[in-house]
């Protein structure tokens, strides 16, 4: 089993989470299934709904903004690219769910690698260390130009693009790269992954971060002009992610409101989701959990095991 560590070299890889379902007095009870949260996970949930003909409203507002709604009983499912934040995090969503009587089932569905992305014509920053990425993004760092990292690199300002507050990808990036330091604020941010890719494609000095599935799914016109950066010499491949070698790996989750799971439509959708997640991940350019984990996830949902599983929390 892949083990998590502070920098998530192994944590992200095996970051296989458990079921989480939320329930509350205001949980939706009629009409379409309501799914909110992560822009990274949104394509997976949307695919499941469309492929298997379920009536699901899916919005991509970021994992944390999704937890805000979910823990208030305003959604049946929260898509999340982070495990639910608890005590010690900026917002204790575990407590917020508990205060609102929202019981949740935490379900890992796949693995992702946060990939550092640059313009194709940038032929100097092809391999960055975690420390260099930290120095580029840290608010107190003097690094603003490529030459600040390596004098042989262009004396050009680094143009930074990324995800906004409320994004789980941003939170994991800060956790694994900044290690408690504040992120600089002078970068352009969006939850629209295609827009983010296009910004990088239009700027030779661009540097950004996004989930590997989002990167690979980017429209061909933009993806032909952007490229991955190796991190500490390691590429964000499936093998390196599943083995725990890639430093910016993480698990992906859906959180299910336990009360909503009593509805036939929600139960059928989640069951179908879990039955097909292993096969669907590669189609959407994400990585699969270790093979034996899918059985454990299905069992957790069948038994309606609620609450967080520390095994998958960084």
TrEMBL record:
<feature type="domain" description="PBP">
    <location>
        <begin position="26"/>
        <end position="263"/>
    </location>
</feature>
<protein>
    <submittedName>
        <fullName>Phosphate ABC transporter substrate-binding protein, PhoT family</fullName>
    </submittedName>
</protein>
<feature type="signal peptide">
    <location>
        <begin position="1"/>
        <end position="20"/>
    </location>
</feature>
<keyword id="KW-0732">Signal</keyword>
<dbReference type="Pfam" id="PF12849">
    <property type="entry name" value="PBP_like_2"/>
</dbReference>
<dbReference type="InterPro" id="IPR024370">
    <property type="entry name" value="PBP_domain"/>
</dbReference>
<dbReference type="InterPro" id="IPR050811">
    <property type="entry name" value="Phosphate_ABC_transporter"/>
</dbReference>
